[in-house]
Amino acid sequence: MNRQILFFDIDGTLVDSTTHIVPASTRAALQKLKKAGHILCISTGRSLQSVTDGHFDELIDWDIFLCNNGQAIYNHDKSLLHMTPIPRESVEACIQAAETQEAPLLIMGKKQILTRKPNAYVITSAEFFKESIPDVEAYDGSDVIMMIAYGPMGYAYEEYMAIPSVDVMIGQSTYADVVLKGFSKAIGIRFILDHFQMQDYLAFGDSLNDVEMLQHARIGVAMGNAHEEAKRAADIITRDVSEDGIYHALRQMRLLDL
Questions:
Q1: CA distance 93 to 97
Q2: Domain 3-82+182-251: CATH architecture, name and number where available
């Protein structure tokens, strides 16, 4: 097969969100794909700092880190290639919404800050991702790529959904991603395709923030443990991440003789 560009979500796709283990078969598959000359990209809602904290940057010599659901894109040495910030007035409206609920809001810009002392939902979310909790600081008005709101499982986050210029993507734990309205991993991927002068891509994902990425891929692969909407958007539904789903999908696609 000709040189391909592949995008991999992290949580629930590369790594089991329950055990926090990357299957050995996935590690081996990534190594073989890289050796064969394919372009390998992380595509995640996580910030670059979170990717690094989880040591996912060490799985392979990644060509691209598409972070914050596509709003921040970095090359293989983690230099920023492209960033699309959220309007400042929308950031301030989200901060006010969080204050009304007496809840913390995580703000991701030139650095990560938390607007209030972490509560139980922040701690649960941090444990889910196995990542550190940022320091509490006041927002200084600088560019913001993404925010994270917190609440109990099943919370609707309606106070954030009413704010112009942002979309809310409810996560798998006690959090929701607050991102630029109308933006998605798929939009960030278009920038990367232009960068590499590629026409199409392959994608692997499991969550709501992977739906558009899977829909627009030449071949979109949903993990067996994926959200039902992600499965409906995919061309292939493979096994769970813990059951060597990426390995089996690559074999099914005959991308490599694994």
A1: 6
A2: 3-Layer(aba) Sandwich (3.40)
